[in-house]
Amino acid sequence: SMKFDKFGVKAGVRAEGTSLDVKYEMAPDMNFDTHYFDVVPNATISYQLSMAQQLRLGYNMRIQRPGIWYLNPYVNTTDPLNISYGNTDLDAEKSNNITLNYSMFTQKININASVNYSFVNNGIEQYTFIDPEKPGITQSTYDNIGKNQNVGAFLYGSWNPISTFRIYMNGGIDYTNMKSDNWGNNSGYNYRVFTGIQYTLPKDFRINLNGGYFAPRIML
After folding, report:
1. What are phi and psi of 79, to 5 degrees?
2. For 204-216, how does the pLDDT look when each residue is reduced to its tens digit (9 = 90+)?
3. Over the range 158-168, which residues count as b (16 or more CB within 10 Å of their CB) and which as e?
4. Nearest Cα to 37, choosing from 70, 71, 63?
């Protein structure tokens, strides 16, 4: 981290290694091992507008490694016409995020607003198909076939006109575009809002009234 007058810079990187060695006592032919090594960077540039206000521009990567149920090659034939199994060749899903944030904190007013852009190029998705050599049987498994772009805005605010009364809200809106080379695409807006009021009684008892609305998620 470094600081130059009103500017500040923070950057970092971490490396994570994971190894799985899975053995089946009753079915050794299904034994498998999987190894992951991921380098995960992050960086933030900040500018101090005043003692109470700050701008930040940041980048970070997030990883999501597949769990054992995504990897498990065991073929579930409980329903012989609809079978499912995992994929031992899955890669870790990488999400890249860029965020511009504004914050202001005073005794009576707090505001935190941001716009962000994120994208995933190797999302882990479940898909179902029919093998021409096994007609009439649907097979479900997983692969790194998902691509996802998301642009969004978020706002949080609270106002304390007097010490015992507070009004607060937070909400956001996102535009999501999801696609797979093999399975089509879907896009649309998702939004949510949550708001409330709080009154503090003597002896620190509090009364809250809250309400919110969450729109359906966009899925592929």
Report:
1. -110, 105
2. 899 999 999 999 9
3. bebeeeeebeb
4. 63
Per-residue pLDDT band for 180 (boundaries 50, 70, 90) equals confident
For the segment 165-171, the average pLDDT, to the nearest whole number, is: 96
How distant, in Å, are the alpha carbons of 93, 118, 194 from that of 90?
9, 21, 37
Helix (H), strand (E), coil (C) string for the chain:
CEEECCEEEEEEEEEEEEEEEECCCCCHHHCEEEEEEEEEEEEEEEEECCCCEEEEEEEEEEEECCCHHHHCCCCECCCCCEEECCCCCCCCEEEEEEEEEEEEECCCEEEEEEEEEEEEEEEEEEEEEECCCCCCCEEEEEEEEEEEEEEEEEEEEEEEEECCEEEEEEEEEEEEEEEECCCEEEEEEEEEEEEEEEEECHHHCEEEEEEEEECCCCCC
Query: What is the C-alpha to C-alpha distance for residues 51 and 103, in angstroms, rounded to an integer?
Result: 11
Side chain identity, residue 11 = A
Contact, 199 vs 168, CB < 8 A? Answer: no
Nearest to 145 by CA among 177, 178, 129, 123: 123
Kindly tell me if the per-residue pLDDT of 181 is higher than 90. Answer: no
Q: Looking at residue 29, what is its pLDDT?
A: 87
